[in-house]
Amino acid sequence: MTIAISPITPDFAAEIGDVDLSAPSPAEIEAIKAAFWKYAVLIFPGQELAADEHLAFAAQFGPIEGDRVLDPKVTPHRLDTQFADISNLDPDGKIWSQDSRQRMYKAGNRLWHTDSSFRFLPGLCSLLYSRTVAPLGGHTEFADQRAAYDALPEDMKRTLRGLVAEHCIATSRKRSGFATFTDEESRKLPPVPQVLVRTIPQSSRKSLYVASHAGRIYGMPEAEGRALIDRLIAHATQRHFVYTHRWRERDLVMWDNRCTMHRGTDYDDLRWVRDMRRATCTDVANTCEQEGIPVPA
Ligand code: OGA
Ligand code: MN
Prior knowledge:
- This protein has 297 residues and is α+β, with helices and mostly antiparallel strands.
- The chain is built from nine helices and 15 strands.
- The chain is globular and about 50 Å long.
- The mean pLDDT is 97.
- N-oxalylglycine (OGA) is lined by residues 86, 109, 115, 126, 128, 140, 262, 264, 278.
């Protein structure tokens, strides 16, 4: 049986049915990939996925990121480190406390970002699976960075050509109020360069590539670079570029980190359980290398 594709928007988000992601056939994987390169956000409702099945499906798209930002020696993790734990639960499965380190760190997910742009090899795609959803709030918004690029005035497109931004996890976390990385955590994740405009090989579409992790632009005065980044994020997240996902239990949502930004919306995280897990695949190279732009010193 071929997969069923139900577009939510003409070319940004689609729901996919008639496939069991715990055991997809090679033909189904190929059909999913073709849809993914077109839409950038795919929703698979009603999936029953064990952890190893989730990881096996994710591995079809690239190597799975295994190291987490927070040091497990300092902040114990509930899940295998191949998953980002997108929940409000402590290792013992209880709702976290108001002052928990995970909670302070994950507040940064409310800012527009793309996963792991703060790593030299950034995230290619992320696959987030919901087990328990909050009854109110806790949605995830996605912004189409290809459409945002297309909508830029020509002189702005020219200005952006060849520009490289510096991304760092400390930048976004400072913005969301978390500034207490240990020395070892900071050492592991120094600032990295990423181009501001990239081309997605599978579609040949150009895309903006910004995030709350981006702090300055190489070769530009700090304040000017920062202002340009803020302006681009404001442009790229206008409502007409955004799809809001309202979670159901057992949704698997995957997105292309190369050409989308996303953020979580608020919910009462000290009251409701929200339990989701994410696998993220690593991109093939740093974006400067992919664009043939020298990596700034
Ligand atoms: C993520 C993320 C936001 C949310 O899973 O990468 O940023 O909806 N999630 O909690
Ligand atoms: Mn994220």
